[in-house]
Design a protein that fits this description.
Length: 326
């Protein structure tokens, strides 16, 4: 290609190059205008605080209504100051613009110079791309309380004595009476619904002395011939019942509700001969084997059982004292 052809080629490309350049300039201007229409202003209540004090920092974000953006989310810090809390977002509407405002509470726990901000705000520019706008920076001086090291330490002051008011005792008085009423209600309910032990009906005492009554009952039992009819269990139940009631009538010992083991442990508390104790316990043990182990004693054992019962009565009946010889 000769020199003339090169010149003609570049002349043909000139309109295209001019169009591209105009498009780029237009986008830049639109982006610049969009960013210029948005403002993010950070203001503070003060630029000087004591260490640990709270400071309110307000972010005001002004933008056209046609531009959609959101307030930034602050979680940990604002600049290099500790984030404490944030308020609700306030919205102010103008004819062409909207203003979003939010207050952040910040603090610092060291002395020196700190800064709140810059805070980044993200939005879509005229070309649809995500753009970033940064707020201004607020410088905050954090200082500590001045301490005069030349003066000695002062003693700790005692707590101030504050007189009590009768109104302070009202909750305690009300609580006391409520507790008292609950306690009273609990006692009444307990008395009403508790399982009361039914009174034990006193068994009738025979008119005859205990030993005479017992011999009569043993005679009746022997005459019924229960074990001879095969009613061995009933025979021993009646026999032990007579002996237990005899203990109650003779010694005032409530043995009818006692087991054989309980009688054996308590028998030494009552005055009776060893032979009498052996006779009684032998009868009770044989009766337990018949009633609970279903043992069938031999006939001579059944005969010896009622004989031992009579012998037990003989050994424990009260003896009349012989009159002393003058």
């Amino acid at each position: 290609m000769n020199r003339k052809a090169h010149i003609n080629f570049f002349i043909a490309l000139t309109p295209l190059r001019c169009g591209l350049l105009a498009l780029l300039l237009t986008s830049a201007v639109l982006s610049s205008n969009a960013q210029t229409a948005i403002s993010a202003t950070l203001t503070a209540d003060s630029t000087h605080i004591l260490i640990g004090d709270h400071l309110n920092v307000k972010l005001a974000l002004k933008h056209p209504k046609s531009l959609k953006l959101a307030m930034p989310v602050v979680k940990d810090s604002v600049g290099n100051m500790e984030f404490i809390a944030s308020s609700k977002i306030d919205t102010i509407s103008e004819p062409t613009d909207e203003i979003y405002a939010q207050t952040y509470t910040v603090s610092a726990f060291d002395s020196g110079q700190f800064h709140a901000g810059p805070i980044a705000v993200y939005f879509k520019n005229g070309s649809g791309a995500v753009d970033t706008l940064f707020s201004n920076v607020v410088i905050v001086d954090v200082s500590t309380l001045p301490v005069d090291t030349l003066r000695p330490f002062k003693p700790i002051k005692a707590p101030l004595a504050v007189p009590y008011s009768w109104k302070e005792f009202i909750p305690y008085i009300i609580g006391f009476f409520v507790l008292l009423l609950l306690l009273l209600a609990g006692v009444l309910l307990w008395e009403k619904y508790r399982k009361k032990t039914p009174p034990v009906a006193a068994r009738p005492v025979p008119k005859d002395p205990a030993h005479i009554w017992a011999r009569k009952e043993l005679k009746k039992l022997d005459d019924e011939k229960l074990w001879q009819k095969g009613d061995v269990k009933i025979y021993y139940s009646r026999l032990t019942e007579i002996l237990r009631l005899y203990l109650e009538y003779r010694f005032n010992w409530l043995a009818l509700e006692s087991t054989t083991e309980e009688i054996e442990m308590a028998i030494d508390n009552y005055k009776m001969k060893e032979k009498a104790k052996d006779n009684l316990l032998e009868i009770l043990r044989i009766a337990d084997l018949v009633k609970f182990a279903k043992q069938q004693p031999m006939p001579d054992t059944n005969i010896r059982a009622i004989e031992s019962a009579n012998k037990f009565i003989d050994l424990t009946e009260p003896k009349e004292e012989e009159p002393k010889k003058s």
